[in-house]
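User: My collaborator sent over this chain with a note saying "see what the structure looks like." That's all I know about it. Can you take a look?
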Amino acid sequence: MNVRTLSPLDRLLAGIERAMEAVAGEPEAGRTSPGHAVDEADLDEASRRHAAGLMRINHTGEVCAQALYVGQAALARTPENREHLLHAAAEETDHLAWCAERLKELDSRPSLLNPLWYAGSYAIGVVAAVVGDPVSLGFVVETERQVEAHLAEHLQSLPEGDERSRAILAQMQADEIRHAQSAQARGGVDLPVPIPQVMGLMSKVMKTVAYRV
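Assistant: Without extra context I'll predict from the sequence alone. Here is the result:
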């Protein structure tokens, strides 16, 4: 059986399709949302808005993760690392779908600025890939570490009783830890100062804006 090798143009078109799905579509999860096993809480209006704000941040974070991984995969130096990045992106699609579904349950919506977040993260992914796979995988490690940290904060900050959102974030956190460990095992290097600090600052800006917009 003949197996077609994707050209750079093929990968570009596939990347555009992924971008449209991430920022404007309704991605389908490969796994059932962990929230389905938990009863819905009776939240007051303030608690519902707060939970929605946190889930909107996490949805935007998954949009950024999609863009980062797809940008890195587009210019990955080896087929093995490309497949690794696309596999991680597929699991992030689960997270994206879970967060989108939860936002609907909370009568809310994703960030209106998701196209901007996607474009910026895709550009970072491309730049990282151009430098080389060890640095590109290092970006995965650092990104996942920072995401895991803010998920831990959100698990504490969610309204009392919102175990449905909490179940989703707990599974996301476990996946992010595994992604970081896998990227490090594949040769991801620690990023030099001040890159992690700049990434952390950018993340704070995104979280502040996405909570409201």
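A starting point for your reply to your collaborator: The mean pLDDT is 90.
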